[in-house]
Description:
The chain is α+β, with helices and mostly antiparallel strands and 265 residues long. It contains 9 helices and 7 strands.
Amino acid sequence: MKPTTHALKSVWDAAREHLSAESADNDLVQLDNRLASAFCCGPNYHFVLDFSGMQPEHGTPSIRHVSPSIKSVLGLDPGQVVLQDILDRMHPDDTEFVARAEQAAFDFIYGRIAADKRPKYKVSYCFRFKTAEGNYQLFNHQAMILTTDPAGRLARSLCIQTNIQHLTEQNNHCISVIGMSGEPSYLNLDISQMSAPTPVSGVLFTEREMEVIRLMSKGLTSRDIAKTLCIAANTVKNHRKNILNKSGCRNAGELITRCITEGIL
Length: 265
């Protein structure tokens, strides 16, 4: 068994009590809704990780609903790709961090988040992949629960992986557990010091400021943002000024990079 697979299999084995052995049908509407909640700021692809029916002797989940864009991003055939093909593209030096990040994510979601709240969270961290061009670049990984069994155990999760090399080449080696639908977020967590995380969602930026940041990340100008939010252009400029002051960033590019790498977006 290859090192990356062995490391992740150990995580899945340790988390087996939280994984469902029952088959689960995909709700494609729910899949679309989950994709809409993911922030993708570069070349990306997605797939569904299926834990249902995973046997101890095999130890690895299967993948379904692989997006066609995996061909241009990683050079893999979406009709033939298996999980091992994706794992083989990971930088060997990032294997240990990814395994530790996955273990930390399981521990956090199933140890600190109430069962009915878990589908309202996604996990985000970064690592390097070999691209279709043959060089290693930094990717942001987002994962969220898609389906569970009646006991609340994970059956399928949605994974979205986005190339962010154009934004930053530096990995902060932290994970973020991001609340959706108004749930608190836990950002930029050092996985070696996760004993008492503090929720930070809503503390740094207001909801209106987050709306402005999301539109800024899409390349909209202040005038475009004002039209979209039905507010004055000067109001947008004030929001942008306050956002930069709060974050300590010097410009919009630095702000968006920080928001992505720390899981704020």
